[in-house]
Design brief:
With 215 residues, the chain is an alpha+beta fold. The protein folds into 3 domains: 97 residues, Nucleotidyltransferase, domain 5; 67 residues, no CATH class; 40 residues, no CATH class. It contains 7 helices and 5 strands. The strands form 2 sheets. A 3-stranded antiparallel beta sheet has the order 3-4-5, with no helix packed on it. Strands 1-2 form a two-stranded parallel ribbon. Helix 2 links the parallel strand 1 and strand 2. Helix 3 packs across helix 4.
Length: 215
């Protein structure tokens, strides 16, 4: 039950109807009570009738076919393939909707390594009204979020830079080096972190130096 709450309800919100098979992990007093408290209608599939839960059964069939192509002979490494195969399934076009599940949920296609290499192209294909509306709304929200993040970044940058003073060092200059190592049996509150003396050997940029310790 905790997995259902943590990984489904708290991530994707509650559902109106919860359909499951008649396994004891679903048909028990805990799940029935939880459904009643959350206002979810709990129903179950008919015995020996996979057609009553066809979407789930078809998904299982496809995943089993994909597993058969990837797992080792002893079949003990299936857990390591699960997330990868799920991603490939979500990124592939669905026979019924003609769109990948990832696109219908996120409003965009997933980005993979090949997408970072190939140039962007404009798609001239017509998009169904629902999918187009989802993509348009998500794009609008993303633009607002980017604007708000830029404002927040500017405010944070302004407050942070009030107390920041530019400091530079010259080659050959002697300075104290911050050494954060902690020692067993010694309290960090009494430890001096600037007891190491060093000399600037090389300057790479305004923030990175090569320092040689004298101790």
């Amino acid at each position: 039950m905790r997995a259902l709450v943590d990984h489904v309800f708290l991530k994707y919100s509650l559902c109106h109807v919860l359909l499951s098979d008649q396994g004891l992990e679903f048909e028990n007093e805990i799940l029935l009570s939880l459904s009643a408290i959350l206002g979810v209608t709990k129903i179950r599939a008919s015995s020996y009738r996979p057609q009553s839960n066809a979407i789930c059964e078809v998904l299982h069939r496809v995943l089993n076919t994909m597993f058969a192509k990837c797992i080792s002979e002893n079949q003990k490494d299936w857990v390591g393939w699960l997330l990868y195969l799920t991603f490939c399934y979500n990124a592939a076009e669905h026979t019924s909707t003609k769109f990948p599940p990832f696109f219908l949920f996120m409003g965009r296609m997933p980005v993979w390594s090949i997408d970072l290499v190939l140039p962007k192209v404009q798609c001239d294909e017509t998009v169904p009204e629902y999918a187009a509306g989802v993509a348009e709304k998500l794009e609008e929200v993303q633009n607002v979020v980017r604007h708000n993040l830029n404002d927040a970044w500017s405010t944070s940058c302004k407050w942070y830079n009030r107390k920041v003073k530019t400091k530079s060092f010259e080659i050959g200059q002697t300075l104290l080096v911050y050494y954060s190592q902690k020692y067993r049996g010694k309290t960090p509150k009494w430890q001096s972190y600037y007891s190491t003396v060093g000399t600037v050997v090389q300057k790479f940029n305004d923030a990175t130096y090569l320092v040689k310790s004298k101790t």
